[in-house]
């Protein structure tokens, strides 16, 4: 027991030392030559591991961008300053999954606990971005009575438009569509902001509402006892929360199902994320209810769904297809050893490290035999690239799918397949993810040698099993219906309303 206590103490001291060193390194300036070595290192790793690096940009143009970047590095920079120079070049590759991890300060357990006992400051609002304008569209706690539709002109005297222009350069969608950036930027805007400015306890907002300017001071308030009790209650995983994949952070569910009319003619499934958690049970129970109800119409809502599990979308498709299907084409890799570069021991605790060490030979064996070569190219074996039978409760009626610029990655893969197979009517706006696939799957987490910035590189080219459009754009809707900021504020849903009206018209003529 005494030895165990010594080990725990040593681990705690080591952790504190590691955090201190990490934070010291984040503010130290790195010389120009070392930064140029980091740029070369990043590009070399991308060339070796990324299976479709020149999909949206030519090698000549990308070579030029990296060379031009190196010419601008003529003085020492901190890792954060370097990040804001290198990430825009990474974004020019136009692969939405490909991005440097922004260098951040690490916190001790004590500091994390202190933050958990306080309310968020910026996260208590919902935002909307149009061009270079930042708006508040929801004030969850009625803070300072700020009205939805209020524009944030400046944060601590810095124009919000400057931040938007700066952060927009850090984000790319798949290809050349322009719908993704504003959706994603509104969600990550304050991640970038706090990485630059830290977690302050106050912030000044200069705002504009109905032509009137006003300045508010936000405070990071301490949570009350009721707030802390509510947090504990939200974290409890009830059967319902598991089935619908409850997210305590925003007090919502990743999956929802309901009938939209009294006679259960129209079923509606909202999927915010293809998380995979309990999804098999959710779809099994949901489609059994839909079949028992004899529903004629199904609406699947994947708006603002950034993607997730390939297994989940393949399983979902089995409830929509009338015949056997293949969801994706064989997934390409750069080499047969690429799967072994996935940082197997990454973020392992000492116990996990020991366990993984014992399992490592099995892991190597499994990964080695998961690849195969065909026509001079290397592929990774995936269940989703094999024929899949429809489920016994597969829906036979008419399907509508709601999409927008926030539909990304797996959301785009399944909607591209549905559109190609003419199995659904897509309503909304062009997806943020590409029609012809993406590079993701699993990742190799590369750390740049001097700045220590992490660069996760997707290793698999994942493409829907369709004839490619080669538009270098997202999945386009069959019916284009846009949603305005005022619609969101007024809780109107023109895309869903169009579908409901269309269904009512069809029912009326039957």
TrEMBL record:
SMART domains: TSPc (SM00245). SUPFAM superfamilies: ClpP/crotonase. InterPro entries: ClpP/crotonase-like_dom_sf, Tail-specific_protease. GO terms for cellular component: outer membrane-bounded periplasmic space. Residues 211-482 form the Tail specific protease domain. GO terms for molecular function: endopeptidase activity; serine-type peptidase activity. CDD domains: Peptidase_S41. Gene3D superfamilies: 2-enoyl-CoA Hydratase, Chain A, domain 1 (3.90.226.10). It comes from the Bacteria. GO terms for biological process: proteolysis; signal transduction. Residues 219-240 are annotated as: Disordered. PROSITE patterns: PROKAR_LIPOPROTEIN. This is Peptidase S41. It comes from Chryseobacterium luteum.
């Amino acid at each position: 027991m005494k030895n165990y206590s010594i080990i725990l103490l040593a681990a705690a001291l080591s952790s504190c030392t590691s955090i201190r060193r990490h934070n010291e390194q984040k503010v130290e300036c790195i010389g120009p030559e070392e930064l140029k070595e980091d740029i070369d290192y990043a590009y070399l790793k991308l060339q070796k591991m990324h299976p479709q690096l020149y999909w949206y940009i030519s090698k000549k143009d990308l070579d030029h961008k990296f060379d031009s970047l190196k010419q601008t590095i003529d003085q020492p920079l901190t890792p954060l300053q370097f990040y804001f120079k290198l990430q825009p070049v990474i974004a020019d590759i136009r692969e939405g999954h490909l991005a440097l991890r922004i260098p951040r300060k690490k916190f001790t357990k004590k500091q994390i606990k202190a933050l958990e006992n306080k309310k968020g400051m910026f996260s208590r609002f919902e935002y909307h971005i149009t061009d270079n304008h930042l708006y508040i569209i929801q004030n969850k706690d009625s803070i300072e009575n700020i009205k939805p539709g209020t524009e944030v002109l400046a944060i601590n005297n810095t124009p919000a438009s400057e931040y938007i222009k700066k952060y927009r350069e850090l984000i790319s969608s798949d290809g050349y569509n322009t719908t993704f950036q504003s959706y994603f930027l509104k969600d990550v805007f304050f991640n970038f902001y706090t990485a630059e400015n830290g977690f302050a306890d106050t912030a000044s907002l200069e705002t504009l509402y109905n032509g009137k300017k006003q300045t508010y001071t936000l405070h990071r308030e301490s949570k009350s006892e009721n707030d802390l009790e509510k947090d504990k209650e939200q974290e409890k995983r009830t059967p319902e929360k598991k089935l619908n994949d409850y997210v305590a952070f925003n007090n919502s569910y990743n999956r929802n199902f309901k009938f939209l009319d009294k006679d259960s003619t129209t079923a509606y499934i909202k999927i915010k994320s293809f998380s995979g958690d309990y999804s098999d049970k959710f779809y099994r129970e949901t489609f059994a209810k839909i079949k028992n109800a004899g529903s004629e119409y199904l609406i699947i809502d994947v708006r603002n769904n950034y993607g997730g599990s390939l297994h989940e979308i393949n399983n979902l498709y089995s409830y929509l297809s009338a015949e056997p299907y293949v969801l994706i084409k064989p997934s390409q890799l750069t080499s047969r050893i690429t799967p072994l570069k996935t940082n197997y021991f990454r973020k392992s605790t000492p116990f996990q490290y020991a366990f993984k060490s014992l399992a490592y030979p099995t892991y190597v064996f499994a990964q080695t035999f998961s690849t195969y070569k065909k026509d001079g190219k290397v592929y990774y074996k995936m269940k989703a690239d094999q024929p899949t039978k429809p489920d016994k409760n597969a829906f036979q009626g008419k399907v509508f799918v709601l999409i927008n610029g926030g539909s990304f990655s797996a959301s785009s893969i399944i909607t591209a397949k549905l559109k190609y197979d003419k199995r659904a009517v897509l309503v909304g706006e062009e997806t943020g993810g590409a029609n012809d696939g993406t590079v993701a799957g699993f990742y190799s987490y590369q750390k740049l040698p001097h700045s220590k910035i992490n660069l996760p590189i997707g290793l698999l080219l994942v493409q829907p099993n369709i004839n490619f459009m080669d538009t270098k754009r997202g999945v386009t809707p069959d019916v284009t219906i846009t949603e305005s900021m005022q619609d969101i504020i007024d809780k109107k849903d023109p895309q869903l309303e169009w579908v409901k009206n269309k269904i009512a018209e069809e029912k009326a003529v039957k």
